[in-house]
Amino acid sequence: MPVLCSSCGDKRAVLKRPKTGHSLCKACFFWAFEEEVHQTIVTANLFKHGEIVGIAASGGKDSTVLAHVMKLLNERFNYGLELMLLSVDEGISGYRDDSLETVKRNQEQYELPLKIVSYEELYGWTMDAIVKQVGRKNNCTFCGVFRRQALDRGALMLKVDKICTGHNADDIAETVVMNVLRGDIARLRRCTAISTSSEGEGVVPRCKPLKYAYEKEIVLYAYFKKLDYFSTECIYSPNAYRGHARTFLKDLESVRPSSIMDIIHSGENLSVRDGVKMPLQGTCKRCGYISSQSLCKSCVLLEGLNRGLPKLGIGKHHRLHDKILTQQPLTEKEERKLKAVHF
Ligand code: SF4
Ligand code: ZN
Ligand code: ZN
């Protein structure tokens, strides 16, 4: 006997929702998924009528589902948003060049304007060249820092009011776990926020409409909707630390499916004791981007690359920032310490 959809009781169920355990037909699953994203958007007041919103698009499943659902909800509920796709080309041959082809197809499928900003044009370095210099251990640090700023720069070029990203519930739970394990209180406090206001000049507000969507459901949604997305992993092995947090969460989830939502809930409700020292937000003296040091992370990483001292931006070398700013030469000992290629 085929199982009937527990929502309409009419059609045949084709899946069991990971989030609720309900057996649903395709149409009822689509409706439930879209309705939940809509509720997230409305409850958190993520957008205002008339805003220009850049969708951070990588061609992967999360951002493809985000673009699809944002376009659909914008029309269904008359949000009045002007949507655009915004992509970053990190310069990873055999990976990003292929995924950007997917974004270009999405642009046509969804009839949305697309802007691509590249690391090469912004920083003068592709990730391929960076990995050649720094090796494969800390490459994601460079990539992550550069991407954050690249998205802001692209958003400013497009004059968007807000960027929305495809972070899902699993990503956020992983970040909570990572920040707890690292004792990074400042990030722990920020990482569950569904939206951030502009933290300073050149920083565009961001939001995460898929914050409460499980990764498994995003995959099901993309699969049943037959969305065109790119599913290959980056060739420069993804962030190892996040990988551990991910495996840990998947194990927890198999024993207790609500673990992901529970961790997000815990992260949202943590409060920081009075008197805990938080970094003071200022601006980078070189490029003007937000920074708690005299130079922002991006400028320090770039300086390290350009000087052939890749370790400069890895770890804490804050006391060297002033020397860099005033272009004083480093001592031989400092240079030696920062030169190691495979660290
Ligand atoms: Fe960049 Fe690392 Fe992600 Fe690859 S895995 S795209 S190098 S952050
Ligand atoms: Zn149904
Ligand atoms: Zn800077």
UniProtKB/TrEMBL annotation:
InterPro entries, per the entry: CTU1-like_ATP-bd, CTU1_C, Ncs6/Tuc1/Ctu1, Rossmann-like_a/b/a_fold, TilS/TtcA_N, tRNA_thiolation_TtcA_Ctu1, UPF0021_CS
Keyword Oxidoreductase applies: no
Enzyme Commission number: 2.7.7.-
Gene Ontology cellular-component annotations: cytosolic tRNA wobble base thiouridylase complex; mitochondrion
Residue ranges annotated for the Cytoplasmic tRNA 2-thiolation protein 1 C-terminal domain, each copy included: 282-312
Main location: cytoplasm
Keywords: ATP-binding, Cytoplasm, Nucleotide-binding, RNA-binding, Transferase, tRNA processing, tRNA-binding
Domain spans labelled tRNA(Ile)-lysidine/2-thiocytidine synthase N-terminal: 54-233
Binding-site residues for ATP, renumbered to this chain: A56, A57, S58, D62, V88, G166, D171
GO BP: any one term: protein urmylation
PROSITE patterns associated with the record: UPF0021
Enzyme class: transferase
Keyword Transport included in the entry's annotation: no
Annotated GO MF terms: ATP binding; nucleotidyltransferase activity; tRNA binding
Listed Gene3D superfamilies: HUPs (3.40.50.620)
Subcellular location field: Cytoplasm
Pfam families: ATP_bind_3 (PF01171), zn-ribbon_14 (PF16503)
Involved pathway(s): tRNA modification; 5-methoxycarbonylmethyl-2-thiouridine-tRNA biosynthesis
Database matches in HAMAP family: CTU1 (MF_03053)
Protein family per UniProt: Belongs to the TtcA family. CTU1/NCS6/ATPBD3 subfamily.
Function: Plays a central role in 2-thiolation of mcm(5)S(2)U at tRNA wobble positions of tRNA(Lys), tRNA(Glu) and tRNA(Gln). Directly binds tRNAs and probably acts by catalyzing adenylation of tRNAs, an intermediate required for 2-thiolation. It is unclear whether it acts as a sulfurtransferase that transfers sulfur from thiocarboxylated URM1 onto the uridine of tRNAs at wobble position.
The protein, known as: Cytoplasmic tRNA 2-thiolation protein 1
Source organism of the structure: Dissostichus eleginoides (Patagonian toothfish)
Gene name linked to the record: CTU1
